Amino acid sequence: MTENLTWNAGGTPITIRKDLRVPMRDGLELVADAYEGTEQKPRPALVALSPYGKELQALALTTPPQRRPSPMWDGCIEAGDIARIVNEDYVHVIGDLRGSGGSGGEHIGNYNAGGVSLGQDAYDFIEWVAAQPWCDGNVGMVGISYFGSMQVLAAAERPPSLKAVFVSGGHYDFYETTYHGGIMWFMPRAAREGRGGDSGWAFTDGVKSRMIEEFSPEELKAKVDERLADPDVAGWPNLVHVLNYPKNHEAWFDIVMNQFDGEWYEERNPNELAGQIDIPVWLQLDQGRGWTLDSTIEVFDRVQGPKKLTIGSYPPMQSRPFVEEHDKMFRWYDYWLKGIDNGIMDEPAVDVFVEGSREVVTAEQWPPKPVEHRPLYLRPRHTLSTEPELMGTEFAHPDGFYQAPLTVTDDVQILSWSTPVFEEPVEMIGTGAAHVFVEIDQPDTNFILRLWDYAPTGMRQLITTGYLKASHRELDEARTSEGDPRHPHTRSVPVEPGTIEEYVIRLYPFAATFMPGHRLTAELSNAEPLADEHNSLLPPDAFHLPVGRPVTHKIYRDAEHPSRLVLPFTTQ
């Protein structure tokens, strides 16, 4: 270990303790760097843990924050603003998880499921930090995304010195992190492999596959052959490659092989562990990443101690190095780690930025206002109406589109329906649903629904999204309510071609006011456009597995088939 290096970051002198060795209970050591002020005294510590490499996180001292679509944006520089943390008189401790960077051991599966619990390692790491002479015994945590998930895993283990956490943009429901409505999402591949704006995991010997460890070669081959029988998978080169050569990307192989929810994802799922957390928790996430906003709200509802929830403004991708939300974080930690009575706990527990009106709504719960779920019906001439269709199928002919596989075309077919221009502000906050009656000529397809706010100028902003693989249409009736559908995603039920089925698509939570002169537009497709206003803000790999066969879709919207949106209108 090299101690007491000095660094001057924009006028902030910093003492750096490099390559600290942190012992784990099983005899392995993790490696860490600690950043603090030059005055030698005990301070509260903010711990950041991930497999992305502490040396990458050190770029926060030298790289100005970048936002998408900057090509310099690197999604893995997520441990926080080192210079500011030091300037606020905390010690910033950045550690490499086992099997990554300079740390010992190996990593098995995603989030080390099947190996040593990452929460267990975090417990040992936090207690070691708290015992050091440069720490005053009070520990919090810092960081976005993977670093955020680690905070929940750590807090669930209840290390005595972890006094509070402030979690930004974490991933909690591990199935929903990779399969949206049963449709595979490629962005987790980027973090694991180092693609599309992410440096990737800094693992020393790779991540060991649980599937390879648990099944014989013969059993595994049979499972791989079954997965390759899916035409969506067989039509995508990366998936064919990883299924034939799994040791190149073993963590991604495990995800591809487990397309259904269940025990494999739940083993160390932070959603399931959140009920064990009784320390103060502040959860924060921006809109536009509906995929993790759902589980952020679920964790908020489950944690047992003092808690706060912040839902910020669109767009979803914060700066890298990650520097946002530090103002709230330091007020939180000044109160819980330094004992400064700054009034933070006298303020409402929930604050939500409402797109459109650009107001911040506060309350003690989510949603922050009473809501009533009301329908907007799909009607002829691509319109949305509060009134249902009265004509039968023979007069209200279905809308439709034919989508060729993206292996042979770049043209993504999109159907849209729009409201009339709003004459008064219309506010919606909460979850929603789309009930669409559809006939397809194949056993499966994707449904991708996106809601947009169109301004009179023609500019538009994404409000929320919904995804559903047709073969995953089963509902969890016990958990489903009006405007809040839930799908178990535990099996595939192929569609009988030529039959009309009702598909209930969950719309991720959102908060938006449609201002006078604006209109709401719903777009339905089975693939995503290659470029538009929304996905230009995301890393290049942030798209979903397209359908690998040609599909004709007929969307019925008549008296017998009331296709509709069900949206959360606020009532006060």
TrEMBL record:
Record field: compositional bias (Basic and acidic residues): 474-487
Keywords: Hydrolase
Pfam families tied to this protein: Peptidase_S15 (PF02129), PepX_C (PF08530)
An annotated Gene Ontology molecular function: hydrolase activity
Ranges of residues in domain Xaa-Pro dipeptidyl-peptidase C-terminal: 330-566
Keyword Hydrolase tagged: yes
Domain of life: Bacteria
Chain segments carrying region Disordered: 474-494
Name of the molecule in the record: CocE/NonD family hydrolase
Protein species of origin: Citricoccus parietis
Taxonomic classification: Bacteria, Bacillati, Actinomycetota, Actinomycetes, Micrococcales
